[in-house]
Specification:
Blueprint: H1 10-13, H2 26-31, H3 45-57, H4 62-75, H5 77-86, H6 88-95, H7 99-105, H8 107-110, E1 117-119, H9 127-131, E2 141-145, H10 162-175, E3 182-187, H11 194-197, H12 212-229, E4 234-237, H13 242-252, E5 258-260, H14 261-281, E6 290-293, H15 297-312, H16 317-321, E7 324-328, E8 331-332, H17 356-363, E9 367-370, H18 380-389, E10 394-397, H19 409-415, E11 421-424, E12 431-433, E13 436-438, E14 441-442, H20 449-458, H21 466-478, H22 482-486, H23 497-514, H24 526-532
Parallel strand pairs: 1-3, 2-3, 2-4, 4-5, 6-7, 6-9, 9-10, 10-11, 11-14
Antiparallel strand pairs: 7-8, 12-13
Length: 539
C-alpha cells in the first residue's frame, strides 16, 4: 500500500492491486475507512504467505492448486506475486507448464473471474474503441494467442486464454514487469475442434475458425489499434499454428516491438542448453551435428537461431544449415521431397529419404532435439542409438506439457546407462541412477522471454533483433555453474530466475544500444537502472 490510497472501505479491500487484507495497520484502517471491516489481528505479508501456502498445499491436485492461486491473484495481487517469487520452484509448474495445459482444457469449466481482453470477428472496425474499456492506459506487454496450437494439445479455441494469463504471470514473477503493465489477449476467431464447440459451457466465438484475408485484416486492425492506444507496447505472439506463427512474426517483427515466443524464445533457451551441454560433452559448438524430431515452427525456429550462432563463429550460412537435420512424420527432410513448407526448405539435405532411426545412425548427431507434441517418440531404440554414437548424448525432449514429452528423464537415463544429458520443456524430478543423482534441466522459455521483454522495455527498443536472442542465450548459458553440470543440469536453478532475467535484460538492452535500436538515453549503470524498474511485490 502506498502512502495514499485512491479507494477506501470495501472498495480498497476488493481492489486486488490495493488490497493487503489483514496487513493494513491500525492507522491505515482508520485512514482508509477499514475499521470494523477486518479481523483484529495485524498480519504482515510474511505471516500471510505461509497461510496462503498452507491453503494451496491442502488442495488435492494441481488443477485445484491452480484455481486457488488464480483466486488469490484476483483478491490480493501482491501477496500472490510475493508467494510466486519466493516459491518459484514449487509454484511455476502450477501457474504454467504443465498444469496450465489442463487449465486450458478445462478453462470453460473452472472459469471464475474474467481476466484479459477478447477480440472476435464481430469486433471488426471497433477494436480501438474497445481498448478504451481496458482499466489502465500504461500497458507495456501484451501476450496474444488465437488458441490454435496450445502447447502440444492442439486447437482449444478461447480456452487458450490460460496461456497469455500464465505467461504474463511469469513476466511479473520472473522479470518484475508491473502487473498493471500487462494485458492478456485472446484473438478469439473460432475453433475447428468439434469437442470444444460442442461443449455447452464453452464461452468462445462458436464458429469455425476465421481464415485467410479476413484473419489477417482483423489482426492488422488489432496491432494498429494497440499501437495507437499503448505506443511502444511489446506484443508477444503465443501458440499460433505454424503457418500463422511464421506469417505474423515476419509481418510485424520489423514494424512493431514484437516476437514469437514459440519460435524465437524456444530457440534461445534451447541454444543456451546446447551451449551448456558442450561443457559436459567436450565438443566444440561449431563442430556439432544437431538432429531434430519435428519440423514445425518451434523446431525450425531453433534451427534458424542456431544458423546465426554458427555464423557468428565464422561459418557460412550454407555450412551452418548443413549441420542441422530435421525429421517429420514422413522421415528426414531432404531435397527430393515435394511436400516441404517454406520454413523447412533451407534445411533440406541432398540425401536419400531415411526414417528417423536410420537418419540417426547415418548422420551420427551429437544432439537430439524433440519438438513434436507427441509423447514417447524418443524410444529405447532411439536413446540407445544416440548413446552408442556419443559418450554423453544430449537429449532435449522439449514438448509441453509433461504428458507430451518425447521421453521421460528416467527412461533417458536408464536407456543411456546414466550418460544422457537430458533436458525437457516441462519439469521432471531428479533421478537416482546407480548411486548418482541426476537432475534434468528444464528448458523452459520462462528463462528467456521475461528478460527479453524487460530489456526491450527498459531501453524502449523499437524492434527485437535476432542478435538479442543470441545474446540472451549466451547470457543464460553463462549462468550455469560447474555444480549444475556435475548433475547433468544445463540451466541455473529456478530460484535464480530473476537474476537470470536481469542478466538477460541488461545484455539485451546493451545489444539494442549497440545496434541503434534503443530510444531511451543510456544510463550510466544500465544494470542498476533496469533493476530499479523491477516490480517489488512486498508491502
Amino acid at each position: 500500500m502506498t502512502d495514499s490510497c485512491p479507494l477506501s472501505g470495501y472498495a480498497a479491500i476488493n481492489d486486488s492491486s490495493l488490497n493487503k487484507s489483514t496487513a493494513f495497520t491500525r492507522d491505515e484502517r482508520e485512514k482508509y475507512g477499514l475499521s470494523g471491516l477486518l479481523p483484529y489481528a495485524e498480519s504482515s505479508q510474511n505471516q500471510q504467505m505461509p497461510r496462503a501456502l498452507e491453503n494451496m498445499r491442502r488442495k488435492g491436485n494441481d488443477i485445484e492448486k491452480y484455481i486457488f492461486l488464480n483466486a488469490l491473484q484476483g483478491r490480493n495481487e501482491r501477496l500472490y506475486y510475493r508467494t510466486v517469487i519466493d516459491n518459484i520452484e514449487e509454484i511455476m509448474p502450477l501457474i504454467y507448464t504443465p498444469t496450465v495445459g489442463q487449465a486450458c482444457k478445462e478453462f470453460a469449466h473452472i472459469f471464475r473471474q474474467p481476466k484479459g481482453f477478447y477480440i472476435t470477428p464481430e469486433d471488426k472496425g471497433n477494436i480501438r474503441n474497445m481498448l478504451d474499456n481496458w482499466p489502465g492506459n500504461d500497458v507495456r506487454v501484451i501476450v496474444i494467442t488465437d488458441g490454435h496450437r496450445i502447447l502440444g494439445l492442439g486447437d482449444l479455441g478461447a480456452n487458450g486464454m490460460g496461456i497469455p494469463i500464465g505467461k504474463l504471470a511469469l513476466y511479473v514473477g520472473c522479470a518484475g514487469i508491473h502487473p498493471q503493465h500487462c494485458m492478456p489477449v485472446m484473438f478469439d476467431i473460432g475453433s475447428n475442434n468439434e469437442e470444444v464447440l460442442n461443449d455447452p459451457l464453452y464461452m468462445g466465438y462458436p464458429h469455425k475458425r476465421l481464415e485467410g484475408e479476413a484473419y489477417d485484416a482483423l489482426m492488422a486492425e488489432f496491432v494498429e489499434a494497440v499501437q495507437d492506444k499503448f505506443p511502444g507496447v511489446l506484443i508477444q505472439f503465443e501458440d499460433f499454428l505454424t503457418p500463422n506463427a511464421y506469417k505474423l512474426m515476419e509481418e510485424y517483427r520489423d514494424k512493431v516491438l514484437s516476437f514469437n515466443d514459440d519460435i524465437q524464445g524456444t530457440a534461445a533457451v534451447t541454444l543456451a542448453g546446447v551451449y551448456a551441454s558442450t561443457r559436459i560433452s567436450g565438443h566444440d559448438f561449431k563442430d556439432l551435428r544437431i538432429m531434430f524430431l519435428g519440423a514445425g515452427s518451434a523446431a525450425t525456429g531453433i534451427g534458424d537461431l542456431m544458423v546465426a550462432a554458427f555464423q557468428q563463429l565464422g561459418l557460412s550460412e550454407e555450412q551452418a544449415t548443413q549441420k542441422l537435420f530435421f525429421n517429420d512424420r514422413k522421415g528426414l527432410v531432404v531435397k527430393s521431397r515435394t511436400d516441404l513448407m517454406p520454413h523447412n526448405r533451407p534445411y533440406a539435405h541432398d540425401l536419400e529419404q531415411l526414417n528417423f532411426i536410420d537418419a540417426i545412425n547415418t548422420i551420427k548427431p551429437h544432439v537430439l532435439i524433440g519438438a513434436t507434441g507427441t509423447p514417447g517418440t524418443f524410444t529405447q531404440e532411439v536413446i540407445e542409438a544416440m548413446a552408442a554414437l556419443n559418450e554423453r548424448p544430449a537429449i532435449f525432449a522439449l514438448s509441453n506439457p509433461t504428458s507430451r514429452a518425447e521421453c521421460t528423464a528416467e527412461k533417458a537415463y536408464e536407456w543411456s546407462k546414466g550418460r544422457a544429458i537430458f533436458t525437457s520443456g516441462s519439469p521432471f524430478d531428479a533421478v537416482d541412477y546407480e548411486g548418482k543423482t541426476l537432475k534434468p534441466g528444464q528448458g523452459n522459455n520462462a528463462y528467456i522471454f521475461p528478460g527479453i521483454g524487460l530489456g526491450a522495455l527498459a531501453c524502449r527498443a523499437t524492434t527485437i533483433s535476432d542478435e538479442m536472442f543470441l545474446t540472451a542465450a549466451k547470457s543464460l548459458a553463462d549462468m550455469v555453474s560447474e555444480e549444475n553440470l556435475k548433475s547433468s543440469t544445463l540451466f541455473p536453478p529456478l530460484t535464480d530466475i530473476r537474476e537470470a532475467s536481469l542478466n538477460i535484460a541488461t545484455a539485451v538492452a546493451e545489444k539494442a544500444y549497440e545496434q541503434g535500436l534503443a530510444q531511451e538515453l543510456k544510463p550510466d549503470n544500465l544494470r542498476d537502472f533496469i533493476a530499479s524498474q523491477m516490480y517489488d511485490a512486498s508491502y
